[in-house]
Design brief:
single chain; alpha+beta; Oxidized Rhodanese, domain 1; OB fold (Dihydrolipoamide Acetyltransferase, E2P); 2 domains; 4 helices; 19% helix
Length: 191
């Protein structure tokens, strides 16, 4: 059990550092888990829950979200319907931000957005055009496809190696030992 927790935490830490190029916003979970907080974003107004999806039922039209950390973590059940925007982001194990409203005793998701990592210091994002120039010019760098292996198998950028986030710890040996060599990670995210 403890070994599994260490693996999961390691994968999350690695994902934060390596996949941050997929980030859109910086969001931190508050210690007060079940109390909704407001996000100062134009499209996300009203109370929100921030957390990790622990379950989703399309039949019951519910999302279970673990919010908070450690002993204060709680699982919140939120309903969704045909008016809920972004429900495709509610994937088990992924971080999400849910804008919701109460309807009687029930809590309904108005919109669901992915909760993505902020880029760590020293990591810079590049534009698609810049990556194309790097590839075309033959620049010396390592291109890493961090999507799940099956997505890599269906198609990937020329010269990319597959190091999925879920296998990052096991496959770090594939990275070059030269600390000055540029690494470019890409995923299926919005960047």
């Amino acid at each position: 059990m403890q070994k599994t927790i260490v693996k999961v935490l390691s994968a999350l830490i690695v994902a934060t550092f390596f996949l941050s190029g997929c980030a859109q916003e910086n969001s931190k979970t508050t210690g007060s888990a079940v109390k909704p907080t407001a996000i100062a974003k134009k499209k996300m107004t009203g109370p929100v829950y921030k957390g990790r999806v622990v379950g989703k039922s399309n039949k019951a039209k519910t999302i279970s979200i673990q919010v908070g950390k450690g002993k204060k973590a709680q699982t919140i059940m939120v309903k969704f319907d045909e008016n809920t925007k972004g429900i495709e982001h509610a994937t088990k194990g992924h971080g999400i931000i849910v804008s919701y409203e109460k309807q009687g005793k029930d809590v309904y998701a108005k919109s669901v957005k992915p909760k993505l990592a902020k880029m760590p210091k020293g990591v810079v994002g590049i534009k698609t055009e810049d990556l194309k120039k790097m590839i075309d010019s033959g620049e010396d760098f390592v291109l890493i496809d961090s999507r799940p292996a099956h997505r890599y198998g269906t198609g990937h950028l020329p010269g990319a190696i597959s190091i999925p986030v879920c296998e990052m710890q096991e496959l770090l040996g594939l990275l070059p030992k030269n600390p000055n060599k540029s690494l470019v990670f890409y995923c299926g995210g919005p960047t």
